[in-house]
Amino acid sequence: MSLLSASLLGIDFASPLMNASGVCCRYNEELDAMLASDAGSLITKSCTLLPREGNPEPRYTATALGSINSMGLPNEGYEYYLDYAVKHDYAKKPLFMSVAGLSLEDNMAMLTAIREAKLPAIVELNLSCPNVPGKPQIAYDFEAMESMLEAASRVWAQPFGVKMPPYFDIAHFDEAAAILNRHPLVKFITCINSIGNALVIDIERESVVIKPKDGFGGIGGDYVLPTALANVNAFFRRCPDKQVIGCGGVKSGAEVFMHLLAGASLVQVGTALQEEGCGIFARLNAELAEILQRKGYRSLEEVRGKLRTL
Ligand code: DOR
To answer: Which residues form the Dihydroorotate dehydrogenase catalytic domain (predicted)?
Structure first.
C-alpha cells in the first residue's frame, strides 16, 4: 500500500483524485486522457436517456476566483457511456458513471440498462444539476429525493452514490442526511455540485458572462471551497455508515488535504482541471504527498475526518 492509496466501496484506488463529472469526460478521447493521467479513477459526464446538445453558448466562463457554468447536461446519451464502460479495463482504474435522468422514469430506465450490463462500474446518481430550465434540483425537494432514492435502490439493488447540491442550513443537513440514512444502498455521498444559480457580472461590458438563463449558473472554484468543506464534514458526521467524496475548490494539494480532514475518502477536481488539463493530477498527487510526509502521515486513513474542533 502506498502513501496515496484510497478505498471506496471496498475498491482500491492508487490516488484519491479523480475528475468531477462534467469536466474532461464527455467524449471517449477525454475519458482516455483521464485514464492516461495520474488520477486514481475517472467518471463519465452526467448522462441522460437520449443525447443532448445542452444550453446555448457561451455556457462556461472561468473567472479570477473560479468558474460559472450553465452547460445544461450536454452529453452523448447513456448508451455512449455504457459502451465506454463495457470496454473499460477495470484493473487499470475504477470507473464511475454519472447518471442524471430528466425524470424518475428516465433514471430507472438507465439504471436498469446499466445493471443488465453487469459491469463493475460505480454509479453516482446526480441529484443536483442546477442548469436544466424547468427541472429543479432534486435534492432541494426532499420528497422527490426520497422517491428517487427509493426507486433507485429497488431498481439498481446494489451499492451506489449520490451527487449532492450544497446545503446552507443545519436543518437541511439534518433532513438530507436522515433521508440518505434511510437508504442503506447509498454507500457514498459526493459533496458538492456547483453552487447553483449564481450571477457573475463583467463591469466593462455591463453584462452577464454566460448566455443561458439570463446569465445565472453554477459556480465552482475558490468561491465554493468553504461551502464544499462544510458539506463534506456535515455528511461525514451524520452518515457514519457511508463514505463521502469531496468536490469543490481543489486547486492544490492543500485543498485535497482539507477535504480529507473534513472526511472525504476520494476528492474530485472540477474547475482547476478544466483550466489546467489532466496534467493537474500529477501535480496534486505530488503536493499532497509532500504535505503528508512533512506532517509524518503514512496513509490517507490517518487523516480522514480527523479535523480538530476548538
Ligand atoms: O454545474 C453543473 N453543470 N452541474 C451539473 O450537475 C451539470 C452540469 C451541466 O451540464 O450543466
So the answer is: 4-292
